[in-house]
Each structure stands twice: as structure tokens, then as C-alpha cells.
Amino acid sequence: MTTDLQFDFLVDKQKNTITIRREFAAKRELVWDCYTKSELLDRWFAPKPLKTKTKSMDFREGGHWHYAMVDPDGNEYWGIMDYITIQPIENYTALDGFCDDSGRLNPELPRARWDVTFTEAEDHAFVETLVAYNTLEDLESVIKMGMEEGLTSTLERLDELLLTLQKQ
């Protein structure tokens, strides 16, 4: 990650939320595409050394993204993002959760509502993600699972992808 780009990871235990504010050295439309197109998500949406593979994606209100993060040994960790609202190139909201390879939610693991907003200033995009959990226990669970470290690595991969895409 370029050290002069903004990255905030703010935990609010009173509201059971995490706010992630991240600046990218790219135009908003390109960053939006990286968040909303499976062929691009598969290139960055997992912390190193994991890879992402999409099983299905239907990016529309009421649609979903069903994906796995795959470790170097081939173990798969499945997730599903159910899209609630979409305002192209500005914002989307979704429910994110852990599931199995058929998309069935794992009730033992936390589910969160994501509110992702994209803004632009000159040649940089800003993404603010508000992740809201039902309980403090759910919030603390994902923090213990390494969400901050995993997200830091994942967003660094997006930086790398954006550099590649802008050179094409």
C-alpha cells in the first residue's frame, strides 16, 4: 500500500460497527468495477496467500455474490453477499455471511450488513464501508478472526490490481 493513501479501521463497540475508510489512487468508476464485477473481485478479494473464486454472481438489488477464498492447500472458505440496494458508482448495501458451497448460511458465524460508499476527489477514489453486526459478540468474533489484518492485506491487493488495470 502506498503509505500516503488514507486507511482507517475504526471499531465502535457501542454501535457494533466497523468503519473502514480507504483511499485508492484510481478513478471512482474503476474502483467501483473492482468491487462489483466477479472477474475483478476474483483477482483481489482475499488476503495473501489466499485466492478468490466466484461460484455465481448477480449484481443487482436482490442478487448475490457466492464466492470462496481458497488457501494454498486448496481448502475453501465460502461466503455470500446478498445485495439489498445499488446506486451505480455511488453506493451499495448488502448482507455478508459465511456459508457452504451451496450458499447455505452458517448460523454459527456472524452475518453483517455492509454499506459501501464510493466518492472521488481529483484522481483518487475514496471508499467508506460501514459494517454493522447484530451483537457485540459478533463484532468481537470477527476482530478475533483477524478482520483488520485480513482486510489490510486484501486492500493492498486491490492497490496492486488498480495499478495493473490503469497501465492497460
TrEMBL record:
User: Sorted alphabetically, which InterPro entries does this protein's record hold?
Assistant: ASHA1/2-like_C (IPR013538), START-like_dom_sf (IPR023393)
- Name-wise, this protein is SRPBCC domain-containing protein
Q: Which SUPFAM superfamilies match?
A: Bet v1-like (SSF55961)
Q: What is the lineage of its organism?
A: Bacteria, Pseudomonadati, Pseudomonadota, Gammaproteobacteria, Cellvibrionales
**Superkingdom:** Bacteria
Q: Where is the Activator of Hsp90 ATPase homologue 1/2-like C-terminal domain?
A: 26-162
Q: Name one Pfam family in it.
A: AHSA1
Family affiliation: Belongs to the AHA1 family.
Q: Which residues cross the membrane?
A: none
